[in-house]
Amino acid sequence: MRWSIINLDKFFKPESVAIIGVSSNEHKLGHVIFRNLMNNYKAKIYPINPNEGRIVGYKCYPSVLAVEDPIELAIIAIPSEAVIPAVNECVKKKIPNLIIISSGFSEIGNKKREEELRKIVEKNNINLVGVNCLGNYDAHTRFDSMFIPTTRLKRPRPGYISFISQSGALGAAVLDLLASKNYGLSKFISYGNATSLDESDYLDYLITDNNTKVICLYIEGVRDGKKFMQVAKKASLKKPVIILKGGVTEKGAQAALSHTGAMAGSSQVYSAVFKQCGLIEVSSLEEMFNIARILENVVKPKGNRIQIITNGGGYGILGTDSISKNNLRFAEMYPRTKNELAKKFPPLVSISNPIDLIGDADDERFRLAIEKCLNDPNIDIILTLLLPQTPLITENIVGTITKLNDMKKKPIIVVCTGGLFAQKIRSELDSKGVVCFDFITDAVSSIKRMCEYYKLG
Amino acid sequence: MRWSIINLDKFFKPESVAIIGVSSNEHKLGHVIFRNLMNNYKAKIYPINPNEGRIVGYKCYPSVLAVEDPIELAIIAIPSEAVIPAVNECVKKKIPNLIIISSGFSEIGNKKREEELRKIVEKNNINLVGVNCLGNYDAHTRFDSMFIPTTRLKRPRPGYISFISQSGALGAAVLDLLASKNYGLSKFISYGNATSLDESDYLDYLITDNNTKVICLYIEGVRDGKKFMQVAKKASLKKPVIILKGGVTEKGAQAALSHTGAMAGSSQVYSAVFKQCGLIEVSSLEEMFNIARILENVVKPKGNRIQIITNGGGYGILGTDSISKNNLRFAEMYPRTKNELAKKFPPLVSISNPIDLIGDADDERFRLAIEKCLNDPNIDIILTLLLPQTPLITENIVGTITKLNDMKKKPIIVVCTGGLFAQKIRSELDSKGVVCFDFITDAVSSIKRMCEYYKLG
Predict the structure, then answer these.
(1) Minimal Cα–Cα distance from A152 to chain B, Å?
(2) Is the pTM of this model over 0.90?
(3) What is the CATH number for A120?
(4) B378 and B427 together in one domain
(5) Which residue does chain A place closest to B353, by CA atoms?
(6) pLDDT tens across B324-344, in order?
């Protein structure tokens, strides 16, 4: 069995791409992929279909062999029985990288066909993503092999979290969600049946990828445990790796078996292995991306002493309860900080932990409080609970907090609860690298996981 | 100490309202309240201000005593030092119901002034909501005494959940959130310092309110423990009462003391009391409204055997894990149901638990699966995990699921994850009484709480 770090760059920034199976029917997968690529990605793109002359104005080739120039990557989206002949043509054309979207292999019991395919690509040293996958996406280069139109699956903005997902539909839902929330993404890989390349290869590749600060991984099973452990250990020494294992319960494992044919194995064994490898295990997708966003964006804090700043007394109390329940520590401001704030604030403002800026707080009151807390060495993390319904909070709060966050002195985590105006503030803050949450409980439990990761006890 | 059920109808559908302290400055609280009422509520409305002749075209009265007709309710939004003289005028005018928005009483140490006020209203048999509160709101009548403009705090649509909140800012954030999610609300009461009427009075009133199916309660402290327990026991026999206690930890209790002056007390004592009274205790606002929505909308299930229906294999696995972790039960379809579905579905569809309708599922495939599960006596609850990114799902899925849900045979709970299209589906389903969640974990833990409430083990 081969195992060396495989350079997957050409899956994210190929200079020439063939799409095998581009129909003129705009609802067909190949057509959607072709359209997405044509609209958003700059490269030589060759649609392949023996039955079409032109596709939306572009020359269509009967086979990759009819293309004169070299091709770096082929995307195959044709019925499974036609895949192997097409791959044989790719071999002849010396195309080194393949993405096979097509399903109809081992996941429906067609193990022979998949095994034959594996042998062909490995013998010819071809890198294969798939089969039975959604495709992949790079938010920086905008390379996109996903067969879902952008009207249905909005693509996220560029960021530094990469996501490897065994499941395609789940990956699609997550990407769509990230885009709507304005969270950033670097690379997305859906790998389906892992016919040749598997989760360990993708993980290994991302270790040295400069656009990846945090790696997220959804798996249902691991193909080669020893290889995975070695790669995972190496990876987690370089960057945070967050893992969600589908099928951690007995019933869930049964469901996984009929999904991607993965042997889910015992959850306790997996959890122990993940821990030993330094991976951050989570139990839901929301938890995964909450922690990922924090690790992507905030500076490492010096300790775990949290100061709450809020304009809602009740929210301050719930935040305090949440910090206590998570066994995190409360900051105790220097008396000098208290005195400085007391000079600037009206007497009703409560300068303690929480700092309660009360209902008539304006943006400037938040600015002052955060600034003074950034300068207080007794405070490690600033948790800002912002209720934007009160009348004196304006849109300028986004610029105010962003400027303070850009100083990169301490983590500033924001919770902003509410409707449209709150959503707008969250979305703008997130797009500017200020990590923002809808709810207190998610923010505090994510801060806890960050502190665990950095071993701040 | 008086204690009888107090009729608070006039706080939600008064026929005549005076607003004491309406300035011509549109940013002032009194003006905002006046505008909201004028725009949305049909009644005789009298703005009161000795210094203004007309307010946005309406005659302004120097005092309630200058109004000839009787007044059922007065809303007072003036500086605290002017409150008692104004209340004395209300006494003279025989106004039986008061909402005092003004702050500046016991919460800043001004206990004498608040005690004097309490004596005046109780001596004259006046019902008082407040002081130091946000106001109240009825989504059915559209009566609205909240001082936040609708541009900042959208009002929720009519529904059957009522929310009593000690904290105003927290209440505002929750209402704004409910509105943006298209969740329904019945009555909202923010009661601040509880100068005269307290949490028990409001709870007592809602027991017999026909527009209230579920009662939600955010409290920081209980003023009269014995009274509260009696009312809570009575209430929970009639309808579900969900309670969130701020200040359940030692640090949180300290924060509560400086917020509303409430003695938060020991959390263990509170939890034990809540349980004894049949209340559903939650630890966050999101949890509160997730459970409330379920209890508001779904029919009581016969048992706790859950069937998953999904179009995403990975999502089916995570759903299965979540059910297992929450110690809920899996339904096992009758063989007849399986056979009927097998006849209608393509062979790749997995007819088990989960039912995996796979990536090319259309609305009709969902309809058929849900319909057959509704008719299978081995299934109690249907958990539909819908990933709307796959191309054959259309907006018609909303009508399809609503129609099945309207039969009120079994609870149908939907999870729909993603961006704009998913949000649209969720919002429309929720507005039609189909309970819909963003994430699996929230849905399953809420189902668990419902099963506990109905004692389905």
Answers:
(1) 5
(2) yes
(3) 3.40.50.261
(4) yes
(5) A255
(6) 999 999 999 999 999 999 999
